[in-house]
Amino acid sequence: MAEMERFYATGKRKNAVARVWLIAGGSGKMVVNKRPAEEYFPRPTLQRIMEKPLILTGNQGRFDVMVNVRGGGISGQAGAITHGIARALLQVNQEYRPILKKAGLVRRDARIKERKKYGQRGARARFQYSKR
Prior knowledge:
Mean pLDDT: 93
Helix content: 25-40%
CATH architecture: 2-Layer Sandwich
Number of helices: 4
Strand order of the largest sheet: 1-2-5-3-4
Distance between the termini: 81 Å
CATH topology: Ribosomal Protein S5, domain 2
Shape: elongated
């Protein structure tokens, strides 16, 4: 049996890091941390976010997706997987770049939680001022 072609990429979002493998000639099966994607991400919106790069490039059902993801919450993890899939698709075919770039999937979303400052209640929220 011939060796199946695999493409690897790392995706990041917030504090989540996803290691993504695309396996060519698959049936479109998505496995996240050794569990089916539907089980790992019960919210359908997160599943759609994850599949977005495959849908845009017309590769839905052509690759099996294997993912190891750590850190952050489920929303950040879904975003990290999306970023990883997009980067792996660029290894498959560089012609997907304009499509993925226009959708904003190539660049890492650098927005992270702002740190809490001393003398304040939060990052920007202040303690309530009392005049008397």
